[in-house]
Amino acid sequence: xxxxxxxxxxxxxxxxxxxxxxxxxxxxxxxxxxxxxxxxxxxxxxxxxxxxxxxxxxxxxxxxxxxxxxxxxxxxxxxxxxxxxxxxxxxxxxxxxxxxxxxxxxxxxxxxxxxxxxxxxxxxxxxxxxxxxxxxxxxxxxxxxxxxxxxxxxxxxxxxxxxxxxxxxxxxxxxxxxxxxxxxxxxxxxxxxxxxxxxxxxxxxxxxxxxxxxxxxxxxxxxxxxxxxxxxxxxxxxxxxxxxxxxxxxxxxxxxxxxxxxxxxxxxxxxxxxxxxxxxxxxxxxxxxxxxxxxxxxxxxxxxxxxxxxxxxxxxxxxxxxxxxxxxxxxxxxxxxxxxxxxxxxxxxxxxxxxxxxxxxxxxxxxxxxxxxxxxxxxxxxxxxxxxxxxxxxxxxxxxxxxxxxxxxxxxxxxxxxxxxxxxxxxxxxxxxxxxxxxxxxxxxxxxxxxxxxxxxxxxxxxxxxxxxxxxxxxxxxxxxxxxxxxxxxxxxxxxxxxxxxxxxxxxxxxxxxxxxxxxxxxxxxxxxxxxxxxxxxxxxxxxxxxxxxxxxxxxxxxxxxxxxxxxxxxxxxxxxxxxxxxxxxxxxxxxxxxxxxxxxxxxxxxxxxxxxxxxxxxxxxxxxx
Length: 626
Fold this sequence. Notes:
CATH class of the domain at 58-175 and 446-466 and 476-496: Alpha Beta
Radius of gyration: 30 Å
Structural class: alpha/beta
Shape: globular
Number of helices: 19
CATH superfamily of the domain at 58-175 and 446-466 and 476-496: P-loop containing nucleotide triphosphate hydrolases
Distance between the termini: 39 Å
């Protein structure tokens, strides 16, 4: 009997292991004889395709990625040739036991692997740009006399790589960290940390919006700032004549806008309803008329915390308007910021061009840096302590209410109060929501979610997964979800990659993987999940633990724990074989010329599609200590 049996269906030829390891020529040292069922685990949820999204457009591709950690005990081979693909509008899952390299994969993609870790080789392609361009020139490896590997880094090349990644990290590829308390600064408030992200990645948009609102303020250059507020506060003043000004003049348009603003204020002041939806509608109308959406958010919380007869409501709304018209010094400061953000945007575009073409543009980069330096030298007076606080107040208020809008998007209760709090004052679920708000603030193309639902109750888990699903369906973000919860994978993932000891052992669409797992490790993970429809079924476990990656097992890294292990598994590393459309498995059970129980070679297994060609690597791997 052959180790694999052929079935005819829409996938052509399929190969699966026999139902018992005794059919194979194996040498099990310990443990009873058992078989692992394949049709176990939760049922994946059907998910419709994203409307308007390109068919299976690959946004992020990871090819033959290797990441090592150079420790005193030896070289930890954390990632040994990882291949992943994240597609637009889809969620790609990465599952496996603790210590198999899931989080290291996310940190390697964003180049956040800290010392003594180092990305050795591979390619990370974001829309055609190789994020690891120039990796082979960043470090050299030398063997010391005691057998250890000495890493000599080129800090100039490393700094240039960090500058190039700044154009991608956070803005186009965002990440939700597993430990939000460790990822946030305890001495800064929530609004300060969220606001820093907004200004870093969307500062040009914020500044241009404030300058546009200032230019459209009614009566600009015709009335002083205080007179504008008095004009709005006086009943009936908006309906007064234009003082002989001709039809369509600047003064006429200013008074017309002022009339619309005063009508929106009157509606807010007279609102007696307690319905948040109606108050939100009045507030958003006020923000649209003024041209500053965050003013609508601020007005909503003013009206919500005061009653209709409170005279402070009108006064506080008028006070909030004072940040719209800018003084000459404040306007000069925002124009300086706009020029600075424009140069930084050009630097980011230059970095993308370098990573796509593979050619350095050092002269253009030096020219842009010189422009940035000269701009900072011309505006040194803006950094004086007495001036800085005064000119930065409108920008600070604008950013604060933008952070409140972000916290509203992640369904945090009392977001205006939470924005003023510090990380240690929030619970784990609220901190996780803040991290998600920070990641979603830039509306990235790729979202790396490193176990975003760990240590949260099921209600919060469902809400966080719903937020990620909404982002994926609304703007087509490609989500790379790292988790060990197969129930979450079945709920939200479209494609699943099963990792073990730094390698991907199986990759397939979620529905296909849960219906027909091929690798023994995938079968073991699914067999350990309890099912409500089979309450009497005995749960099975995978014996042993993840091996020490300083000295990983030779051949297949799973063979010490595999019930189907053969002598070839201890000698050769299995190749990645395609056994169906988008279904890859790395196991000798599906390789050609495998010996069966009778000692004769089994017929060569021809996969449904040819195996994927090996991805070109970057720098050569250093000689490692055995």
